[in-house]
Q: What sequence folds into this?
């Protein structure tokens, strides 16, 4: 799906782990956060990358892969992307009903890892 010139952003946790051994096309830039305590950074990072891509005049899309829990932390930035006319953004949501990586670390039964269900 990725094309030359695209920017790929993966959220910390499940999305990031899935791309650890991915082979990307030439000139695809990959952005991720290595410090795990930063969930939610990727939606505003997507905004910044998409804005920079647009202002540079270079072709390419900004592709975000984010979990539903992380998305809910900073979803308002999607509105900011729309306000700035950023139309070349693709957001892929891993909808797994909450903070799955936190469940793996701290136990699957803790209710604080549950989130509201959104119809993405």
A:
């Amino acid at each position: 799906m990725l094309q030359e010139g695209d920017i790929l952003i993966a959220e910390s946790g499940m999305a990031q782990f899935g791309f650890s051994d991915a082979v990307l096309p030439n000139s695809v830039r990959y952005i991720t956060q290595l410090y795990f305590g930063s969930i939610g950074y990727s939606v505003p990072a997507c905004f910044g990358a998409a804005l920079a891509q647009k202002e540079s005049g270079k072709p390419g899309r900004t592709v975000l892969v984010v979990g539903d829990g992380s998305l809910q932390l900073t979803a308002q930035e999607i509105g900011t992307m729309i306000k700035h006319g950023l139309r070349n953004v693709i957001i892929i949501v891993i909808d797994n009903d909450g903070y799955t990586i936190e469940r793996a670390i701290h136990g699957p039964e803790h209710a604080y890892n549950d989130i509201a269900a959104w119809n993405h």
